[in-house]
Amino acid sequence: MHLVLFLSALAGLAFSAPTTSTCHSRDIIRDGGFETGKTPPTSGGDSWTVINFIGASTYYLTSPGSTNHGGKYAFTASLYPGPYSNGMSGDTLTQIMHTCAGHNYSITADYKFNATTANDCSISVQYPYKTGVGSVTTGSGISGEQAGVWYTTVATFQAVSSADPLSIVFSCSNSVHNLISVDRVKVAPFSGNAF
């Protein structure tokens, strides 16, 4: 009799299976190689969005992409100072990453400058860092870098949330015009120390 009561009491309980994390079930970023062929919008993009225009800067997709195993397209920022921008120009390519708070990640991106004669232009990859923003910045006048040649930049970070921003900032100063391209933007889990 006691066994029957015990079993009938157990039948009324709901048991649940252990849950598994879906943290990395989606792409961390979308269209990192710009292979959809869609030029990013200035608002409401489902992957990349272009914001923070300075001067008379524009942007477009160029072909071919990076020669470092890139694809058909690359994103190119065409930086021109405007009449009221005090010689400055720039724009920002941004997207929200699908990250897991507390997990470490690596970022790689291929880039190239159309002109490298002066160190008046830069590309800066910005990512979350503790309570602020971390970045890796490369200037157009780096010794040994050649105009029109693809190079790769790398950074690591620890995610702050499940929706961390990734921004790539293109900028020039001193009334310089330049074309800066980026391709093969990749974010992946990183097992090492991200600090």
Tell me what the structure shows.
With 195 residues, the protein is mainly β. Helix content is 5%, strand content 41%. The protein is built from one helix and ten strands. It has one helix at residues 2-11, and strands at residues 49-54, 58-62, 74-79, 89-96, 104-113, 121-129, 132-139, 151-158, 165-172, 178-189. The protein has a five-stranded antiparallel β-sheet, with no helix packed on it. Strands 2-3-10-5-8 form a five-stranded antiparallel β-sheet, with no helix packed on it. A hairpin with a 2-residue loop joins strand 6 (121-129) and strand 7. The chain is globular. The termini are far apart. Mean pLDDT is 85; it is low at 1-20.
C-alpha termini separation: 63 Å
* Mean residue pLDDT: 85
Question: Helical residue percent?
Answer: under 10%
H/E element sequence? HEEEEEEEEEE
Identify the overall geometry: globular
Total E-strand runs: 10
Secondary-structure-based class equals: mainly beta
Topology:
Layout lengths: L1 H10 L37 E6 L3 E5 L11 E6 L9 E8 L7 E10 L7 E9 L2 E8 L11 E8 L6 E8 L5 E12 L6
Antiparallel strand pairs: 1-4, 2-3, 3-10, 4-9, 5-8, 5-10, 6-7, 6-9
Compact overview of the structure:
The protein is built from one helix and ten strands; from the N terminus they run αββββββββββ. The chain has one helix spanning 2-11, and strands at 49-54, 58-62, 74-79, 89-96, 104-113, 121-129, 132-139, 151-158, 165-172, 178-189. The protein has a five-stranded antiparallel sheet, with no helix packed on it.
